[in-house]
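Hi everyone,

Forwarding the result from last night's run.
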Amino acid sequence: MSASRLLSDIGATNVRFALLARDGRVHANESFRSLDYETLTEAIDAYLARLPQGERPTEAAFAVAAPVIDDEITMLNSPWTFSIDAVKRTYGWSALHAVNDFVANALAVPRLQDAEVVQVGEGTPARDEAIVVLGPGTGLGVAGLIRCGGKWTPIAGEGGHATLAPMDSREAAIIDILRRQYAHVSAERVLSGPGLANLYDALCELAGKPAAPLTPERISDLYPGCDPQCREAVMMFFAMLGTFAGSVALTFGARGGVYIMGGIVPKILGTFTQSSFRERFEFRGRYRGYLTEIPTFVVTRPNPAFLGLSTLFRD
């Protein structure tokens, strides 16, 4: 039997698996739609069934799109719940590490190669200073990373559920519309895949026209002559993301840089780099100079959470 570790990035839309060999090699990557399985263990079984005979993991590490506080994990944008200990015992693993998905993403940052990131705007990372990782996908993940005792230590949080603040009257009008549907308009209600659809629907309402039933992928496909509300939704999305990222950078004192991951920005990187993201990131009155020196990066490496999860094992 080949001794390896199971890595899993458990999101609301997809659950991704890979094996970590003892030599550090990540292989056997597979992705499954979460909605195709009633439970996490069904998805794990489907992945294990595809492995070669004798290739079975002895330990595991999970990145979960949910708070990891106690043994029982409840997904926020998915019906799945599971017990860390019960899953460990089901498969006879000697260890099962579970962390928030953006904790895993944060742990990946110090190990990224230059070719796996694209810088947007100016700024230079300050050595050993705090780092922020955030990313819109099905939800909005946020985590920090600080240098402590000679090693990088992640800070888990749920910053995506902080109240979203408007920067002008048009954004305020959008938030007023969303407040009728959601009592609390968090950053995630706008800065996520479903949030992009919320933006588009609200902009159509302001324009006095019915919203087409468009997916986030269709909304972000800005071809010549596309729906003008699609274009405005995407540009507003990036602007508001810049404001939010600047606020998180100030909160953490993230002079080591802000790294953007998730399933949206890397896919439409060209549009993102031409947006007002960086301008809005720096637009902070007396602290403009402080934020101007903080670099912002888009991470283009596929599945960075696997890289972060691999740091959780000790040989």
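The longest strand covers residues 55-64.

Cheers,
N.
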